[in-house]
């Protein structure tokens, strides 16, 4: 995966795990029971004319196409980062709010399409597709792009490219999937930006959240990631060596971060000076100084009182300017604040990473989520 979603697995994402297991399992089960497909279709004609309102529930939960099931499951797995970031209750509120909004937006878009093109949309793809497409709104606005590799010179593959490719594949899986996708994006924008105070109207109550945590979390809670598990092996020795260096560097940062949280907390701020030294001087360490030639036997040996003529000069580590004096861009601070971090931590992270928002964001997502 190119996406930066923190630790692997479904740790701290019980709701995402429940959606993956339950909805995907039901979708696979229904492939062996085609005689019941007509009961779970998302038929707008049956809803509006025959008043089969129950189709708004069952027709918008279970996918009847395995291709849609696979793509939506892959997107839900990667979007689990929002459950880790905001908590299961807020993540569930987002899914519930957009699920309700997409029901209204789908009917409205179908009416508009019929009015403009005089074509009646009778049926839409079934499944939890509207909320899945709505998650692209916070994904686009909150997760920064990190370049991975250039492609054809001008095009750059980022950590978000694979997600958009999977979304495009899901978008083109059926003729009217674009209508569901458009309804999901519109609903996601309305809920994400809290238009007309929608978040205060459509949310998961506290008692329901506690009940779900008490009953379902023991079943769907994932184990914590292990630090001793090896990463995916690269194709060459250089790639494998670089992967090992990255893992060691992440473990060093995590150890320094834990020590900083125990001993260096001052007014809620983290001592970021101790978290980034290996990253800030990493490039210097890759370019060691050239070796000096050895002295010839004919040359006199220097006295202990005098410095060796061939000894390299002692270089003191350059003193970095105080982080408080480094300016930070307000738009980068705002982007980190929108992801749920405090303004002070966002400013300190940008100062410590020399205003590199990708480095600061990746570290915050992996170790402060």
Offer a concise description of the structure.
By secondary structure, the protein is mostly helical.
Describe what this molecule looks like in 3D.
The chain is mainly alpha-helical and 369 residues long. It folds into two domains: 14-220, Rhomboid-like fold (Up-down Bundle); 227-284 and 320-369, no CATH class. 54% of the residues lie in helices and 4% in strands. The strands form two sheets. Strands 1-2 form a two-stranded antiparallel ribbon. A hairpin with a 3-residue loop joins strand 3 and strand 4 (155-158). The longest helix has 30 residues, at 88-117. The two termini are 19 Å apart. Residues 1-7, 227-232, 277-290 and 294-321 have low confidence and may be disordered.
């Amino acid at each position: 995966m190119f996406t930066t979603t923190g630790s692997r697995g479904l740790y701290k994402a019980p709701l995402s795990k429940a959606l993956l297991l339950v909805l995907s399992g039901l979708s696979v089960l229904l492939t062996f029971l085609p005689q019941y497909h007509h009961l779970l279709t998302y038929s707008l004609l049956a809803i509006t004319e025959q008043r089969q309102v129950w189709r708004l529930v069952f027709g918008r939960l279970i996918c009847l196409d395995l291709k849609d099931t696979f793509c939506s499951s892959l997107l839900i797995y990667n979007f689990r980062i929002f459950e880790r970031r905001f908590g299961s209750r807020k993540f569930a509120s987002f899914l519930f709010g957009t699920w309700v909004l997409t029901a209204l937006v789908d009917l409205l878009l179908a009416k508009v399409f019929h009015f403009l093109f005089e074509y009646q949309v009778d049926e839409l793809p079934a499944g939890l597709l509207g909320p899945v497409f709505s998650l692209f709104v916070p994904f686009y606005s909150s997760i920064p792009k990190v370049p991975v590799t250039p492609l054809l010179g001008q095009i750059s593959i980022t950590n978000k490219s694979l997600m958009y490719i999977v979304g495009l594949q899901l978008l083109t899986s059926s003729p009217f999937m674009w209508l569901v996708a458009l309804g999901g994006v519109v609903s996601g924008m309305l809920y994400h930006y809290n238009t007309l105070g929608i978040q205060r109207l459509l949310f998961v109550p506290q008692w329901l959240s506690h009940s779900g945590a008490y009953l379902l979390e023991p079943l769907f809670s994932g184990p914590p990631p292990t630090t001793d598990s090896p990463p995916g092996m690269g194709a060459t020795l250089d790639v494998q060596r670089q992967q090992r260096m990255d893992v060691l560097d992440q473990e060093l940062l995590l150890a320094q971060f834990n020590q900083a949280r125990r001993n260096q907390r001052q007014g809620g701020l983290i001592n970021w000076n101790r978290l980034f030294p290996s990253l800030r001087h990493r490039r210097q360490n890759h370019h060691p100084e050239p070796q000096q030639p050895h002295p010839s036997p004919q040359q006199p040996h220097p006295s202990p009182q005098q410095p060796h003529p061939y000894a390299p000069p002692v270089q003191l580590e350059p003193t970095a300017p105080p982080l408080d004096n480094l300016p930070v861009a307000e738009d980068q601070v705002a982007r980190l604040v929108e992801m749920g971090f405090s303004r002070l931590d966002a400013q300190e992270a940008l100062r410590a990473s020399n205003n590199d928002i990708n480095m600061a964001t990746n570290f915050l997502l992996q170790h402060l989520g």
